[in-house]
Write a structure and sequence with these properties.
The chain is mostly helical. It is built from 20 helices and no strands. It has two domains: about 1-225, no CATH class; about 240-480, no CATH class. About 85% of the residues lie in helices and about 0% in strands.
């Protein structure tokens, strides 16, 4: 059983990684091309709507997706109940978003947002149609099928976006990209999935799943509002162009951090759920996952911060230069994202969605206070305070992890200390080198080579155990092919 679960986890991690990074890699390349055509304001307009899209998605799912994954032997009645609930909620939310579009446009003083919002928000309904299929595949740790859907959607939506951008559609190229991606992804998941809805609804299933999922929904809503609060404030207090710079910097930082975290969450959640009653085994595997995630994410984020200016100049051009300034502090804040997520994942695994909600409320109240204090000092200062907020959240998140499986704040920092120190030293070296090289392209090449050699060299010399674990995963995968 243990070996079978480990094999599934390894294969799930590899397929999920392949999906996320193949998809994000294609989107990243397309974004580089489109960003050279479009104006930062176009990205700013989309950024103004993200809080509404993200909030609607959280309300539509309502935590039912996670509840289905966690519930052993979920029934067809469970799935049908969730499907129809999601559909009704998503349609209701779209009607609401359609109605308030003029108010949103007035709030930001951007008349174009009325039509953009009414079309863009259709993704809320489209996404809701595939929540059950995605939950079933995640429960089965089947990320190969999800990869097929994501890659297909990315290829089609990338072509749509590039054609529209070159034809001069401006912000509508970004809208077209999101809509076509949602449509193709949903259609492909339905094509590969054997499950189909039937005319069945169970109030018993609803109450059982909602009792767990509702707390995750509220937590998700709070987290979504907070995560998009910076964009809302930047768009309102400053302007669409400033928001464009901010969203590009945020997007760059999320590429390694959020995508790797997404892979870890999708795979570790169903895997850890299957060992939730074996505390010792859960603790051992949790700590290993934590160390491996930091071993990968910390150097990527510190390297990105060190190479921020040549990275933005080479990939996007000089008109995006200010994004590099914002990218440095945002990268240091985002490097802790996988640690936060794994801690919160553990609470869900142990069925403590009540603690999950409690922590979210506390963290967000502190975060909003920090944001309110930082706004008068400008956009750059706001980005630096995100680091402070991330560290406070880390301390809060680890409190209950310490209570539940005896892996608290100081134990986790101890596990991550070697990786953290090595990554920060790499940042200092990379950032310092740039002062002695004039060409941005040469800076970027040197930064990548020197940073990688230094980090991996230290890891091999001091025999970081994460390397041995990653090697064992790769060897295990080779023997199962």
């Amino acid at each position: 059983m243990a070996d079978s679960l480990k094999d599934k986890a390894i294969k799930g991690t590899l397929w999920s990684s392949l999906e996320r990074f193949s998809v994000q890699g294609m989107q990243f390349v397309v974004m580089l091309i489109i960003a050279r055509i479009l104006d930062p304001k176009d990205y700013g307009l989309i950024g103004m709507l993200m809080i509404f899209i993200a909030l609607s998605r959280s309300l539509t799912d309502s935590g039912f997706g996670q509840a289905l994954i966690r519930k052993e032997n979920n029934t067809d009645a469970d799935r049908n109940t969730v499907f129809y609930f999601n559909l009704v909620v998503s349609c209701s939310l779209y009607v609401l978003l359609f109605a308030i579009a003029p108010l949103v446009a007035d709030f930001y003083k951007e008349p174009q947002l009325v039509s953009v919002m009414r079309v863009y928000c259709l993704v809320v309904i489209i996404d809701s149609l595939a929540i059950i299929q995605r939950s079933i595949l995640t429960y089965d740790i089947d990320f190969k099928t999800q990869m097929k859907a994501s890659v297909s959607a990315t290829v089609v939506s990338s072509v749509v976006a590039l054609i529209m951008a070159y034809k001069g559609f401006g912000v509508w190229a970004l809208v077209g990209q999101q809509l076509s991606s949602a449509v193709i992804n949903t259609l492909t998941l339905w094509l590969y999935s054997k499950w189909r809805p039937s005319l069945q609804y169970s109030w018993q299933s609803f109450h059982e799943l909602f009792s767990f999922g509702s707390k995750l929904m509220i937590s998700g809503v709070i987290n979504t509002v907070y995560s998009n609060l910076y964009a809302l404030v930047v768009g309102k207090v400053f302007n669409a162009r400033s928001l464009g710079f901010y969203t590009r910097a945020q997007h760059y930082s999320e590429f390694p951090s959020s995508n790797i975290t997404s892979v870890l969450q999708r795979v570790t959640y169903p895997v850890l759920c299957k060992m939730k009653d074996d505390t010792e085994r859960l603790r051992t595997n949790y700590r290993r996952m934590l160390r491996v995630s930091a071993f990968v994410v910390f150097p990527l984020m510190c390297g990105m911060a060190g190479a921020a200016y040549p990275l933005v100049e080479v990939l996007l051009g000089h008109k995006w230069h200010y994004s590099a300034t914002l990218l440095i502090p945002i990268s240091f804040a985002m490097m802790w994202y996988p640690v936060h997520s794994l801690n919160l994942n553990l609470l869900q695994v142990k069925g403590r969605s009540d603690l999950f909600l409690k922590l979210e409320i506390i963290k967000k109240l502190i975060g909003v206070t920090i944001l309110a204090i930082s706004v008068p000092f400008g956009l750059l200062f706001m980005c630096y305070t995100k680091i402070f907020s991330a560290l406070i959240s880390l301390f809060i998140n680890t409190y209950y992890t310490g209570k539940l499986i005896q892996v608290g704040f100081f134990r986790q920092l101890g596990d991550l200390s070697k990786t953290l120190v090595t990554s920060l030293c790499m940042f200092a070296i990379v950032f310092g080198i740039n002062h002695y090289i004039d060409s941005y392209l040469v800076q970027l090449i040197v930064d990548i080579i020197v940073g990688a050699v230094f980090y991996l060299g230290v890891a091999f010399v001091f025999k970081f155990e994460e390397i041995d674990y990653l090697k064992s995963i790769l060897k295990k995968d080779e023997t199962t092919r």
